[in-house]
């Protein structure tokens, strides 16, 4: 899978209504966790965040919220934000408008409501964006760690974060089964490296 640590260069122009980074933020960072909740990963993340008094935003899949409602409840109870990441992790570049919107709405109707949305794979077509943007604040990112990429070592993923994070960055991590082992190595180090920053939810 090809991806860059920063969003594709045209995203900030094409999707200027979306969130990428908060330049005005005063020593603040925004951790985001996609694709959960997953037992053994999401609960570990929540414990880790609690230790550092950090708040974050979880872009949950509707199907996982339905499968593990107790984890979703814990995310909310501990003061974190949640966002729609579709029900089934639909790639907007691979499906038409109707099918895409159906999966966005399924997450809202069958799993949970939210005012935030992140497109799976960061892939969304302009018409899909326009429709989603009416009901949600669309959140892209400023830094991708690459923890979902099994060809990268945890050290490489950590370095992506350390080298690219700047004040106000929205950082993408994954509380998924696949990313779990890497996440468990790098999240404590990220929280430690930026201990003079406030970690906020969106
Ligand atoms: Zn995802």
Q: Could you characterize the architecture of this molecule?
A:
- The chain has one domain: Glycoside hydrolase/deacetylase (TIM Barrel, Alpha-Beta Barrel).
- It is 39% helix and 14% strand.
- The protein has 8 helices and 8 strands, in the order αβαβααβαβαββαβαβ.
- Strand 6, helix 7 and strand 7 (170-174) form a beta-alpha-beta unit.
- Helix 5 (97-111) runs parallel beside helix 6 (126-135) and helix 7 packs parallel to helix 8 (180-193).
- It is globular, with a radius of gyration of 16 Å.
- Bound molecules: zinc ion (ZN).
- The site of zinc ion has 5 residues, from loops.
User: Which ions and ligands are bound to the chains?
Assistant: zinc ion
Identify the CATH class.
Answer: Alpha Beta
Average of per-residue pLDDT values: 96
Unreliable spans:
none
First CA to last CA: what distance? 28 Å
Helix content: 25-40%
Strand percentage, roughly? 5-15%
> Can you name the CATH architecture?
Alpha-Beta Barrel
| Series of H and E elements | HEHEHHEHEHEEHEHE
Superfamily (CATH H level) name? Glycoside hydrolase/deacetylase
Largest sheet: 6 strands, parallel
- What is the count of structural domains? 1
The assigned structural class equals: alpha/beta
User: What's the CATH topology name?
Assistant: TIM Barrel
Q: Count the strands? A: 8
Shape: globular
Based on CA atoms alone, the radius of gyration comes out at 16 Å
How many alpha or pi helices?
8
